[in-house]
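Dear Dr. K.,

Following up on our conversation at the group meeting, I've run the structure prediction for Alkylated DNA repair dioxygenase AlkB from Pseudarcicella hirudinis. I'm pasting the input sequence below exactly as I used it, so you can double-check it against your construct before we proceed with anything downstream. Let me know if the numbering doesn't match what you have in your notebook.
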Amino acid sequence: MSENQNLLPFQGEAYFYPDFFSKSKSDFYFNQLLDEIRWKQEPIKIFGKEVMQPRLTAWYGDEGKIYTYSGITMIPHEWTPALLEIRQKAEEISKVRFTSALLNLYRDGKDSMGWHRDNEKELGLNPVIGSVTFGASRCFQLRNYQDKKLIRSIDLSHGSFLLMQGETQHFWEHQLPKVKNTVDVRINITFRVIK
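The predicted structure tokens came back this morning:
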């Protein structure tokens, strides 16, 4: 599939840019974010039960841009210089001014993110999500919310950018599944607009 081609057959838009950042820039940002981001592991509620998230997270953004999901309320840390640089490049492609970023640190193949949609009310009607990956390449999947057999898979590689917009969060859910083989650390930033 070529760059800029919509990954979704209908009811949504997802565009993949595999070499969004050069390898040297990607290496730099990976090390910078690993060291300076205030990572933490928090409990979330799944079907009424509290469990620890299988990854580390952090929330950065404009002042007052609070985000709540799965029983967690996140207060933003102030943007770092590295995050501001990465955000600026993501905004050039998306033509959106992102107010916030959810960062995920996947320590190994056991760390994951289950099926979900980014459809919280704070994100507005048709959320634009700009997803940047640094570190290990991992398989990312999109599944049609009405036809669960319809799945699109793509490897999100070091320095890549995935843009989801339009009606994607209405009709498609996504996940980062666990993997059995040994996988190195991966950092993912999902830029968002909090209304």
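Two things stood out to me. Residues 17-37+51-192 form a domain with the Jelly Rolls fold (CATH 2.60.120.590). DSSP finds three helices and 14 strands in the chain.

Best regards,
J.T.
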